[in-house]
Design brief:
This protein has 261 residues and is an alpha/beta fold. It contains 8 helices and 12 strands. 28% of the residues lie in helices and 28% in strands. The longest helix is centred in the first third of the chain and has 13 residues, at 50-62. The chain is globular.
């Protein structure tokens, strides 16, 4: 069975989101969690554009879902990022809750066969929800790329630090990325590559690509994202590990790409 990745070409996020989501069944969970990448309060392409998040929120609200935007910024107070990057306006316009996962309630889950995180603090907000990982298409200095899988590091409880609130995961970063996705089980990846971020995670240089990548296989979505960044997905360690534990498909021969103009 091939994993399917939808690549929508264009510039208008509202049209692109609508076209892309037509390829997927509507979620049976009534609570939709939208997880952007707001690692810091710098504008795109360092962070996920708020208009992409608005387009997604609007789509699900019009289909009678409860929508929550949830993030736990690694390098700044999450609400500072929300405020500076336009997320307060989305919250007000659509009546959407903004959650700081760094300070969420949690329960401890255990996976003895986890690669590194044998115990995990599972944020209460994410329970019984349909989680959508919505990163910007961006390079990363350590992991090569930071896409839908790596984005989920922000969906964790933060350490009591001013910066590097997710520092504990960096002891074994690639393994942590895989484990977090096994615990949280996001259902959909939407990677905004209209303007990609080149050269690093905290101060990305823009490169116009005019694509948005959709898949319910996050590994496959990231594999195609890596290609758009000029990288071989098999050389991205966390993608290979994710494939090996059954999270998704990294082998390009087993990924069907559907391109829509």
């Amino acid at each position: 069975m091939l994993s399917k990745v939808i690549v929508i070409k264009g510039k208008d996020p509202f049209q692109m989101i609508k076209k892309g989501l037509e390829f997927f069944e509507k979620p049976y969970e009534r609570k939709i969690i939208i997880k952007p990448n707001l690692i810091i309060d710098k504008p795109p392409p360092t962070t996920t554009p708020c208009e992409t998040i608005e387009a997604l929120a609007k789509y699900y609200i019009e289909n009678n879902y409860e929508v929550i935007i949830a993030e736990g910024s690694g390098w700044i107070d999450t609400f500072q990022a929300y405020k500076k990057l336009g997320y307060f306006e989305i919250s007000k316009k659509y009546g959407i809750k903004l959650i700081d996962l760094n300070n969420d309630d949690f329960e401890i889950l255990e996976k003895p066969n986890a690669l590194f995180l044998k115990k995990f603090e599972f944020p209460s907000t994410l329970k019984n929800s349909f989680i959508i990982s919505v990163p910007i298409l961006k390079e990363h200095s350590i992991t090569g790329v930071t896409l839908s899988l790596k984005n989920m590091l922000g969906a964790t409880i933060g350490e009591k630090a001013t910066i590097a609130k997710k520092g504990r995961f960096h002891k074994k970063l690639n393994e942590s990325i895989v484990d977090i996705n096994l615990y949280l089980k996001p259902k959909l990846a939407i990677i905004d590559g209209r303007v990609a971020g080149i050269g690093g995670e905290l101060g990305a240089i823009p490169k116009e690509l005019n694509v948005m990548i959709f898949s319910n296989d996050l590994v496959a979505a990231d594999a195609i994202g890596a290609i758009y960044l000029g990288k071989n997905p098999l050389n991205i360690k966390h993608l290979k590990l994710a494939h090996e534990v059954g999270l998704g498909m990294v082998d390009l021969n087993k990924i069907e790409i559907v391109k829509i103009e």
